[in-house]
Write a structure and sequence with these properties.
This protein has three helices and no strands. With 83 residues, it is an all-alpha fold. Helix 1 (4-23) packs antiparallel against helix 2 (28-56) and helix 2 runs antiparallel to helix 3 (62-79). The protein is flat, with a radius of gyration of 16 Å. The relative contact order is 0.11.
Length: 83
């Protein structure tokens, strides 16, 4: 698989498969395996976000978009206990 679209599809399939494995996990070991598969899908998607930003964004706002893509998950994790 080469290119953005196949990698995005692979990311989505890994993320979906990990979710299904976690949904129907009979024990903690299968749950952890589902988390591992889920983590591969998410890490591939996060990598693709940076690739899309660097290829499509204008140079003037590229660093801002990169900062937002990195800080948004941290902000969500910090604000989640208050919700």
């Amino acid at each position: 698989m080469v290119g953005h679209q196949p990698m995005l599809i692979a990311s989505l399939l890994l993320y979906f498969a990990g979710g299904l494995i976690m949904l129907w996990s009979p024990n903690v070991y299968v749950l952890l395996f589902g988390r591992l598969i889920d983590g591969f899908g998410v890490s591939l998607a996060v990598t693709l976000i940076l690739v899309y930003i660097f290829e499509t964004a204008p140079l003037e706002i590229r660093s801002l978009l990169n900062m937002l893509s990195h800080n948004s998950p941290a902000l969500a994790a910090c604000s989640s206990p208050t919700v």
